[in-house]
Amino acid sequence: MKRGESLPREKGVMDKNRCMVCATPGAFEGGICDPCKAKIRGEAREQQQQIKKDADRSLRKEGTVVEKKSRG
User: Fold this and answer.
1) Could you identify which of 1, 6, 24, 39 might form a hypothetical disulfide with 19, taking C-beta atoms 3.0 to 4.6 angstroms apart as the criterion?
2) Full pLDDT tens readout for the chain, 72 residues
3) Is the pTM of this model over 0.70?
4) At CA 33, angle to CA 11 and CA 10, rounded to 5?
């Protein structure tokens, strides 16, 4: 085997002992490590908030009153 050459692998086969996102070695539940899960959830939450903000802005332009929900 030459230097820099990797072991032969079947196309599309993943190493089950690495994170699917960052390839950190280890056994992870669901195949994704906790820091990557947190990052993905945070990005999804930000995107969801932006979609809601854009929808509210669009409704306000049309003259519809947007009431904010109170939490709790």
Assistant:
1) 24
2) 556 555 555 655 666 789 999 998 988 888 899 999 999 999 999 999 999 999 989 988 888 876 777 665
3) no
4) 10
